[in-house]
Amino acid sequence: MVLSSLAPQTDNLPTLETTFPVAWYAIAASHRVQTKPLGIRRLGMDLVLWRDANGKVVCQSRHCPHRGVDLALGKIATENGRSCLECPYHGFQFASDGRCVLMPCEGKEASISPAMRVESYQVKESHGLIWLWWGNEEMATPEIPWFTGLNDQPRCWTDAELVWDIHFTRAAESVLIDLHHFAFAHHGIAKWMGFADTKRLDSLETQVVGNQIKTQGVLKSEQGNGLSMNFQNEILFPNLSFFDLGLGNLTLFVTLTPIDQDNTWINFRYYADFRWPFLSRLIAKIAAWFELNFVQPDDYRLLKSSVPKRSGLMENHLVHADQTIVHWHRLNKHHQQKGVRC
Ligand code: FES
Ligand SMILES: [Fe+2]
Question: Which domains, and CATH codes, for the chain?
Fold first, then answer.
């Protein structure tokens, strides 16, 4: 994605008002893109993802330039080892570089206007996710950001995704960072797990190096008795977070991406590292299912009630326990000053 080429002439392209921090954004789990095109909306753009004959993921604008039909309703046509995306309405075919290569109603010999094309975006596939680059064209594209030491063996993790009608900034505060809401926002679960009194955030230490924020602390009762939660959290601004919640071999990776100004796509991944892969997979699956069905609905209900919808340093009265949130917003402000907004 190249910000400087943004133009207001189509609905699919965002304006500068709708841009987000420069970064690689995960836009879908790899397993979602199989033999059929997948339609998604991310970063204010309607997109279609599909795989060519070599298994390479292609990301293009979602609406056919002919008469606007949703190309995600189409199919992948492969001939002589070359794959194209075929529109379901009149069968026009688009190559992975975006060119229209066939208009059946005009005949095979017809000359095709260069304007009859879909936009193609730069994507990569790694760590079980498909990533879209969101940055200026003069910038060198960095490597996909990742946490050292995470086991990429797919048998050890499970993804769970959800969509919230919540602004990216509010969602980021919640899913990437905030743990001191646990005993309150999730009081039923906290009680069941024995953490009902862990309301005090203690020994909080944060460290910022470039785009990385590292945090550690303890959630405990005011009296210091009962269970406590020693946690470590690492964030790669703006959109990746890794939690070690002191649950032994179970850890959590979260990433989120704006769908547009009002909606956010979130992917939770539980890693389980036990002796037997089947057990790891089973425990990761149960944890992801629990997160999606019992934990996140609590967060959503409260975030949905938050005003203003877009968060920032001036929109809240942040306290010491919110230190990591302060760092996240400072980095975000820094990005805004560089000319990109969240
Ligand atoms: S609308 Fe796509 S080919 Fe006509
Ligand atoms: Fe929560």
Answer: 3-134 (2.102.10.10), 154-337 (3.90.380.10)
